[in-house]
Amino acid sequence: LAAMNPAGTDVVLEPWQTVASHGLPSGPIYVCTRNDELEPFIEKTPADRRKDLVFFQNGMLDPLFQKYGLQLNPSNPNASTQCLVYFAPGPKPKDNVTDLNPEGLTAAFGRHAESLARRLRSAGLSCKVPVEVIFQGMMLEKLIWISSFMLAGVKNGEVTVGEVEKDCTADVTVLIQELLASCRDANPFALFASDAAVTARLLAYGRSVAHFPTAMKEFPWRNGYFWDISQAAVSEGKADPAPTHSAWLKEYAPSVVPSDSSVAMFAATGEPARIVPATIIGGGLAKGLAAMNPA
Question: pLDDT tens for residues 108-162?
Fold first, then answer.
């Protein structure tokens, strides 16, 4: 991210540094840390700067947003920003476009979505800025993708994503459709395409990142979202909306399963069409974002 700003007007922080002491006084704060580092980072970010946080992590972040009042709702004065990343960071970032979506899948929503989109586009990457109901569906689709492909891969011996798409299509399709049904029920205001269209789009993305490995990681942020939906339904005497997902978690990833259940766009500001200097925290993605700022 920092490499996307050749002017060097961004500030890239080390893990031990804080926004209050070392960051820019205003502007977006790109958070490129691991999921389990998010809460401590939010805690040490001044309350009046938390609305400037821009999250790039995979997984379900909504409960964290709700806890700190950062929900991605245009009516929320403290709303933050989230980016759904479909590109590979590096000296020359690669847009992971697919044969079904050659225009790209990366999307952002929230306070700093437009300025982030300008930064990414300046580096030749795509970035959509959809309305809230569409973004919510896109976010849940990405969660379905990583949760279904990782579990199907582990079930079949930790094969690659490409092998899941090509050789384990039936397994991953069952998971996609179960998890999509869970999302539709739990998120009635999110906008989704048809089951067939969503499945085709997620399989296509699997083909575009065929070399990715599969593993069960960050369960509370990924598959744990669907596990909790299933456990809540069963505890109420209802049928499990994702029975295959629940069964395969128990059989093929028992170490990650908890012993009990726990687990419209923002108004235009008149800001000039330029790359906004940002405070950037953590990881290889951080340096790439800064290089996208030609100022």
Answer: 999 999 999 999 999 999 999 999 999 999 999 999 999 999 999 999 999 999 9
The whole-model pTM stands at 0.89
Report the distance separating Cα 30 and Cα 81, nearest Å. Answer: 9
